[in-house]
Protein: 3'-5' exonuclease
Organism: Oceanispirochaeta crateris
Amino acid sequence: MIHYHYLDTDNKLKEYISSLHERKIERIAVDLEGEFNLHCYGEHLCLVQIYDGQEYALIDPFKVRINLIRDLMEDLNLRKIMYDCSGDRTLMFRKYGIAINSIEDLLPAAELLDLEKRNLGFVLTHFLGIQPKAKKKFQQYNWMRRPIQREALEYALDDVKYLFDLKIALLKEVAAAGLLEEYEKKNQEAQSREISMKPLPGVFKKNRFKKMPSKSRDLFKQLFDLREGYAEQLDMPPNSVVSNENIFAISQSLMTPGQIRFSGRVPRDISAKLLEEIKTLVRAEKE
């Protein structure tokens, strides 16, 4: 069982940050857990996991001021060991305007070594002989809920537990291959990559969408935007309000709006209103 500090007040987080300075900690291993339109609407930072080489800490962003987390993440003098920083950087910057600084991302090292697989679990096993805890149980875990289960917290800490040792092992191999300079370059690129504030939704990148006639694509976009507004209003994942599959089918005249089966989480009066708006859009497109 891992002993950790659960930082759920401003004072606890301030004390932990002070202890980093007192103990002359120069780098920490960092990972985040977030919500991404799976249980509610939008993207949310739900947990920050830290291992400083001596102690473990979990920051509850629902309970502490985001500016304290900003101070920690933007501290140029505190190195942050991460594995694939792209998603965490994006969430922090897009949602809160926080730019994580001084990152030591280990993924570029794994990429330079041309490993068979690059996911963290495989790399830990390959270099350290460690079998991480099974992810399947927590792949759809609702990190928005409080209290977070102890087992889930320990699972989350597993993502930072071995990063110090992994860094040593990976960079030893990178150095042996004469690729340290290339690693430094790629690590810098990983933490400097521009983050789009309004990314194109993934569904618009699918061949299925791109191959539709322009009229069908136009209707799809209108239905997509309509659903987005209702999902935000209901605080529900958009796909749980009206599925992407239904939007594709309606846009291509493969089903009628009346065939939509709304989730029981959508109040009847709202589903009736939404249905009428969908019918209006479909009629307008046919005229």
Observations:
- The beta strands are 4-7, 27-36, 43-51, 56-59, 79-82, 103-105.
- The mean pLDDT is 95.
- Residues 202-286 form a domain with the DNA polymerase; domain 1 fold (CATH 1.10.150).
- The longest helix spans residues 214-234.
